[in-house]
Design goal:
190 residues; alpha/beta; 61% helix; five-stranded parallel beta sheet
Length: 190
């Protein structure tokens, strides 16, 4: 089973690259952002709680995200693997993910990190906000808060996987095709 953590700040291209990985390897895409937005659209209590955090540009609490991811893993026992997109966002979430994987007799194959500079991230997110309908994409100040939140709380997850010799880094400033090909080389070598 192939299980990948696709890692990088908001706007790095994780969603785009996830689609390429799904097409090539037939993996199940677990995007915490998509799962949370689906809960919001459905008007569930989980969705309303999550919206309050997302509208402020802060992270949704661990227990909400962890429970949601574990439910998805358990509901897909025949999966060829998973792409974790936007999760884990903190070292405690990475530790919880390892425990969930162990409990479900799977493991993380690799973490692939997309590196993109702040100016490009901001440009990409604001541009995406013109069509995404996401309020957290449309305000450049809020985008800056999300990137700062990533740098302060999420970036340390990269070190967690590096210590496990599972971290791989790609220059996300390159074209979509070049980034995809570099990811495929890493995955094919696993």
């Amino acid at each position: 089973m192939l299980n990948l953590v696709l890692f990088g700040p908001p706007g790095a291209g994780k969603g785009t690259q996830s689609q390429k990985l799904i097409e090539r390897y037939k993996l199940i895409h677990l995007s915490t952002g998509d799962l949370l937005r689906a809960e919001i659209a459905a008007g569930t209590k989980l969705g309303l709680d999550a919206k309050r955090y997302m509208d402020c540009g802060t992270l949704v609490p661990d227990e909400v995200v962890i429970g949601m991811i574990e439910n998805k893993i358990k509901s897909n026992p025949e999966a060829k693997g998973f792409i974790f997109d936007g999760f884990p966002r903190t070292v405690p979430q990475a530790t919880a993910l390892d425990k969930m994987c162990y409990d479900n007799k799977i493991s993380i194959s690799a973490m692939i990190s997309l590196k993109v500079d702040v100016a490009e991230l901001t440009k990409r997110i604001v541009e995406r906000g013109k069509t995404s309908g996401r309020t957290d994409d449309q305000d450049p100040d809020l985008v800056g808060e999300r990137i700062a939140e990533y740098n302060n709380k999420t970036a340390p997850v990269s070190d967690y996987y590096a210590k496990k010799s599972k971290a791989h880094y790609i220059d996300g400033m390159q074209s979509i095709e070049i980034v995809s090909n570099e990811i495929f080389k890493i995955v094919d070598s696993l």
